[in-house]
Amino acid sequence: MVRLSVAAASLSLCACATMPADGAGTRSISYETGACFGAWLEPLRPRSGSVRYDGPPLCGRMATDLPSADVTWRMRDGSVPELYFYYGCDMEGKRAMAERLRKAPGLLPIGAFIRAER
Known about the structure:
12% strand, disordered N terminus
């Protein structure tokens, strides 16, 4: 079962897209899905708390003007581990993490909702 929720409050996982003129005021779109039994993002889940790859100490080298991904796990025990990743973070050293995050939407039946038509 996949539950899709669109809101402008928080960002679960995103991909940058060029917005049409009527969406120019949109700051973000959020979506939420149920548990993924394929466990594609599970290796990236922090043991607890929030981990941010958006500056030192986890990102020594930064590029600018790139998208980000914010993944939140809501666990049955009530904990909420979160991973925030800025794609300009140490682009060589964090390439595997960036690729895993980039591929995640394509593995879900929601990829078409977050990509602009070209």
